[in-house]
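STRUCTURE REQUEST FORM
Protein name: Formin-binding protein 1-like
Source organism: Sinocyclocheilus rhinocerous
Requested output: structure tokens
Priority: standard
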Amino acid sequence: QSWHTTDQFENLDKHSQWGIDFLERYAKFVKERLEIEQTYAKQLRSLVKKYCPKRSKDDEPRFTSCLSFYSILNELNDYSGQREVVAEEMGHKVYGELMRYSQDLKAERKHHLQEGRKTQQYLDQCWKHMDNSKKKFERECKEAEKSQLIYERLDNDINATKSEVEKAKSQLYLRQHMAEESKNEYAAQLQNFNSEQWKHFNVAIPQIFKNLQDMDERRTVKLGEMYRSFAEVERRVIPIISKCLEGMVTAAKNVDEHRDSGIVVESFKSGFEPPGDFPFEDFSQNIQRTGSDGAIGTPKTEGGKADPKHAVGRTKNKLWLFGKKPKVSFTNTFHSNHLSEMRNAKSKIPSFRTVKRGVRAPTLEDLSHLPPEQRRKKLQQRIDELNKELQKEMDQRDALNKMKDVYEKNPQMGDPGSLQPKISETICNMEKLRSEIHKNESWLAEVEGKHGSRSERRSSADVNHHAPHGRESPEGSYTDDHSQEHRSPPQPDPHEFDDEFDDDDPLPAIGHCKALYSFDGSNEGTLVMKENEVLYVIEEDKGDGWTRVRKQGGEEGYIPTSYVEITLEKNSKGAVTYI
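Status: completed
Returned output:
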């Protein structure tokens, strides 16, 4: 129903004001909503920044689980960017538009209300004019009636003079004339008021109400459009958000446990060969045996020769320090050595933890403190870096020579002699780098040559495993030169192990080790050891690079794991060698 059927101007005034207030209330809701989006996006970006790697790409782990997590962080960062887009679109297309439209509505409403008030004021003015003319007509009529009574009284009075009668008669005519004019004026004012009143209620006010109605309907339509825009802002980013979520799912699918295990193997592969078999050394050859002794002695095969297998089986407990000879496999060697370094176990001696952290194995220039495979990788990496630096120096030298040629051809551009010190310095740096590269290449060739010779010796040991090898240690692991600076440790006396084995004093040892290098043990809790010294292992390396040992004299302490060759006894069934 159209609003012009009602004359409740004030009610419409209140309703239009309520409509504008409701629109601004919705605008406030949108503002708070976009502020939530902004805060959410900011917190997401802070979260991504907190967990993003802060190290260089070369130092980052290459595991698929880590790479997938970083991919998820990148997708989450893109996702937070879409939340920022939502907040920006809401602020520009919804909240900003609502606030602009609200200002326009206020101005339009004010104009319509002013027009309504002007129309009402004009009608009130017409009514006042009509009322004044009516009152004047009433007064003039009363005065004319009064003059008529006076004239009639004087006209009937015989004592009244003729001049008095004439005067009353002229007064009567005057009053009647004025009453007639007042009557005409009142009639005109009344007609005018009725006309203006009809225009007011049938034209002006309905038009004003119609304008207010149109304004309110446009406000309602605008709200509907803003509701739709509010939803469209979210809908437009859904495809990109879906791609971000799909990227996270793809990153999760890219996690490959086998590849990660391969990276661990490649990273910690030492390159050492597994130890060869120990030969049987028969010390009973000079002992004359009786018939009964022969019955329980070493079994003989046809031809009177001892069976090496049976001989080893009967005497290996005697030869081995802590029980039976270990059965070592390359897989056990790798997993026992390198996976144990990855464990995050707490030390059994908390008071010694801080001391151990301050002690580090010496880092030698030729990296001989590292296992062969790791040493080879580090040397190759160092050579590649030196080659890159050398190439930079060569490029700089070429650039300086070109600049020198330009200066010689055009002396006004500069002095060629000023470049000579820099050229000389660059050439000197190149020579130093070439020397470093040559030195590292010789170390690399040494490592690769030793690796090949070790493989050959291993093959020959598999064929002639009964022959004694002077390069093998009694502990059951192969020892070789670790650098040009360190000489090969001498072979310890084999009877030393027999003496220790025959000791009746039981020791809580889990294995033994042989010192590859000397260690001064200057820090508290550490133990001094000499090169080739044999020690008892009483506590394994917990992943921090230290092993607890006991000397034959009973002194205990910690030594660097990388300084010794360790053989651990596992339940008296075999040993695992750490190199």
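Reviewer notes: The radius of gyration is 56 Å. The first strand starts at residue 511 and ends at 515.
Form closed.
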